[in-house]
Design goal:
The chain is an alpha+beta fold. A 5-stranded mixed beta sheet has the order 4-1-3-2-5, with helices on one face. It is globular, with a radius of gyration of 19 Å. The N and C termini lie far apart (about 45 Å).
């Protein structure tokens, strides 16, 4: 039986609002790693990855973070300056749980930035004349999958965000009435826009 290890990994550099957390989740699934990734609300805007897995999986995961492939660079525009990996006592808190992206206050901006990275990737599939590149056809299935995954993630996050907003608006109704109605209307319009994306 493999020994499970627990690591906290601080990633420094340009790693927020560049689809990096989505990339980390994809990479973790690839190496069967459980845990979470979250933006840190510090001055440097770092990202914290907390993982549990066997040593081999963690080593492959860290190697890939430190040495991104061409495929990795298509998935995120992150510019990693430094990775600080620290082994911690294993808690078992992630056992048999899916890898999670922790939502923060700027989740809408993060998701829109994720979408821009995907659009940039799609744009790269066309040549200068606007025609679909022949060599890009093989990767189109992957892109469709990425779009589905991003859409599912957007739906989950906006549902969660909507529930939080609705709860907050209920308390605002009691205090401010018409302001809350306007904000609810704006929230519903945002949901419609996201549904069309």
């Amino acid at each position: 039986m493999r020994k499970i290890k627990h690591f906290e990994i601080a990633v420094k550099g340009m790693v927020q609002k560049v689809a990096f957390r989505q990339f980390v989740k994809w990479l973790a699934k690839k190496y069967r790693i459980h845990g979470k990734v979250e933006n840190l609300d510090n001055y440097d805007e770092d990202v914290l990855i907390t993982i549990e897995a066997g040593e081999a999986g963690i080593n492959r995961f860290l190697h890939r973070l430190r040495n991104p492939t061409a495929e990795d660079k298509k998935r995120t525009a992150a510019k990693i300056e430094r990775i600080i990996a620290e082994e911690m006592p294993c808690t078992g808190e992630f056992k048999n749980k899916a890898f999670k992206i922790v939502s923060g206050e700027n989740e809408i901006a993060e998701r829109l930035d994720d979408g821009l990275v995907l659009l940039k990737h799609l744009q790269g599939l066309y040549d200068e004349t606007g025609k679909f590149r022949k060599d890009a056809k093989s990767g189109f299935g992957d892109i469709k999958m990425e779009i589905r995954l991003l859409n599912n993630e957007l739906n989950k996050n906006f549902t969660s965000l909507g529930a939080k907003i609705d709860g907050n608006f209920s308390s605002l109704d009691k205090k401010y009435g018409s302001v809350s109605k306007t904000l609810k209307s704006m929230d519903k319009n945002l949901e419609k826009i996201v549904a069309k994306i």
